[in-house]
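Lab notebook, bench 4. The sequencing result for the construct came back, and we need a structural model before the next group meeting so we can plan mutations. Quick request posted to the team channel:

Model the 3D structure of this chain.
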Amino acid sequence: GFSLCFVSNNIHTRLVAADAAEFDAGYIDRAMKPLPLAVKRALDKMGVSADEAVLIGDQVFTDICAGNLGGVRTILVRPQSRRDLWYTYLFRVFESLTLLGRRFEGE
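Done. Here's the predicted structure in token form:
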């Protein structure tokens, strides 16, 4: 078995709590990712060590960086939504360039 904990930069606690409740999951809102503070709070909340956890996220410069800085394994997934906030869109442009560059390195 495994347990879930949402780690979200969203400032709207009610929305994060509602999403987490759908999955019977814990949550940390206002995470300030890529800082690893909320990742460490989630580990404490769930009672697990970093080597027992995985952070799954859809943004390299927030989710994946926070997980790496927090010492947990990370999995990058495709974004669920095609619409982003204007500043997230900027991050996505740089993510695309970074991921494209890594793809060519491996060939």
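The beta strands are 5-7, 26-28, 54-57, 73-76.
Will bring this to the meeting.
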